[in-house]
Design brief:
464 residues; alpha/beta; Rossmann fold; Helicase, Ruva Protein, domain 3; 4 domains; 5-stranded parallel β-sheet; 18 helices; 16 strands
């Protein structure tokens, strides 16, 4: 590390220089703040150790001018007895730390080592951020498969127009990311992007959340409240899982799309809003319309432009890129220096069917980093399911070495296992889906999706 020592006492400059050179540092010395600024203009230092009281340019003025000249080194100030207030003022102005005179060599080296460690962490974060930015595309979407890039291209085209967009795809494919892309590439990008999960809000509260309420509209409404549509005025509202909206609320949403007006709960007068709607669903809305669970007129209103995100199992060329992206991202967050993915681990990730899509992949990578030694991810850090290993005892002896008829397909085996476990959980809870979801360690919404996907809603009692 390059360290600059600044002090008007020649003996102290020499002593500090000897101590620091013995530690292996490159050391330069300056007799006052003016000489120090000239030296740093030629070549910046990693650390500057500077006295507070000096002729010409003192420590405080030096610090001010150094920062104004975009100096990036950490400044450690030295203060004699009685100068503590000046040292604290230096820290308020951006100094990293201070050390009172007189001090021992080990005290100085401790402060310097802490400063060096901080700088190393900062450099590592900058490096990881650069790697992360290179992994991302210019649009912020990670992946280069033809299906994904086609969706991104259409999203960027439609973003310039106010048309309503419907994003479809399985849970975890990244529908909100595409919605944010539509917003950021639109003329509304400087205004609010408001995301709301329609499945996460109880039906009784959903209308008030979306449209707001007047004072006294219901018990507990002690003051009027703006809804999410008003919060998004001039910007974009993202209605995730729009297929979960109750029919009564679908009518009111249709009016917003047709008239550009909302009416707060308990209010008599409508309010005009200018909101771009991007909706998303993991349901088949056409089938929901046929089953009279979703209004046809609302479906045609939200489905002006449809963007369908393919599942991760159909985007095999994106898996490695996504895995590296998530490894870099979570390593920076967890303070892990250099994450690596072993070739065997990468092969296992590529071979897995990813029923939970991109969200499942991200969770697997984060889990692996937590379990890994120094960020080195091997097969042993991956969950058994990803490796194609099923424990017969915990799965109710569903498998005995191979699947039915010796079928070794991980995808079909995973589906069989999930279907069987869901049926057992529903049987054990008497059809109570909320308790079954808890047993299965799934969200309630994910369980409902899988029940429909596997056709179990025709066999299971409809109770909660």
């Amino acid at each position: 590390m390059r360290i600059l020592v600044v002090d008007d006492e020649a003996g102290l400059r020499q002593t500090l220089s000897l101590i620091l050179r013995e530690e292996g540092h490159e050391v330069e010395a300056a007799c006052d703040g003016e000489a120090a600024l000239a030296a740093l203009a030629r070549e910046d230092a990693t650390i500057v150790i500077c006295d507070v009281r000096m002729p010409k340019v003192d420590g405080l003025l030096f610090l001010e001018r150094y920062r104004a000249a975009a100096g990036r080194g950490l400044v450690i100030v030295m203060s004699a007895y009685g100068d503590d207030e000046a040292a604290l003022e230096a820290m308020r102005r951006g100094a990293y730390d201070y050390i009172p005179k007189p001090f021992r060599a080990d005290q100085l080296l401790l402060v310097v080592r802490k400063a060096i460690e901080r700088e190393r962490l900062r450099w590592e974060v900058e490096r990881l951020s650069e790697e992360l930015s290179t992994l991302r595309g210019a649009d912020g979407v990670v992946g280069r498969s033809a299906g994904l890039r086609e969706v991104v291209a259409i999203a960027r085209k439609v973003a310039k127009h106010p048309s309503t967009v419907l994003v479809t795809g399985e849970s975890g494919t990244g529908k909100e990311l595409i919605a944010r892309l539509v917003h950021s590439a639109s003329p509304r990008s400087e205004r609010a992007f408001v995301a709301v999960n329609c499945a996460a809000i109880p039906d009784a509260l959903l209308e008030s959340e979306l449209f707001g309420h007047a004072r006294g509209a219901f018990t507990g409404a002690v003051q009027e409240r703006r809804g999410l549509f008003e919060e998004a005025d001039g910007g974009t509202i993202f209605l995730d899982e729009i297929g979960e909206l109750p029919l009564a609320l679908q009518v009111k949403l249709l009016r917003v799309l047709q008239e550009g007006e909302i009416r707060r709960v308990g209010d008599n007068a409508p309010r005009t809003v200018d909101v771009r709607v991007v909706a998303a669903t993991s349901r088949d809305l056409e089938d929901e319309v046929r089953q009279n669970r979703f209004r046809a007129d609302l479906y045609y209103r939200v489905n002006v432009v449809q963007l369908h995100l393919p599942p991760l199992r159909d985007r095999g060329e994106d898996i490695a890129e996504l895995a590296k992206h998530f490894a870099t991202f979570h390593a920076a967050r967890l303070g892990i220096a250099r994450p690596t993915l072993a070739a065997a681990a990468l092969r296992a990730l590529m071979d897995y069917s990813w029923p939970g899509n991109v969200r499942e992949l991200e969770n697997v990578i984060e889990r692996a980093l937590v379990l890994a030694e120094n960020g080195a991810i091997g097969p042993e850090q991956l969950p058994p399911a990803v490796l194609g290993v099923v424990a017969p005892a915990s799965a109710g002896a569903i498998f005995n070495g191979t699947g039915a008829d010796g079928d070794l397909s991980v995808k079909r085996g995973t589906e069989t296992l999930e279907r069987t476990l869901i049926k057992q959980a529903l049987d054990r809870t008497g059809g109570n889906r909320t308790r079954a979801a808890q047993l299965l360690d799934l969200s309630h919404r994910a369980l409902l999706y899988k029940i429909r996907e596997y056709g179990l809603d025709r066999n299971a009692p409809d109770s909660d």
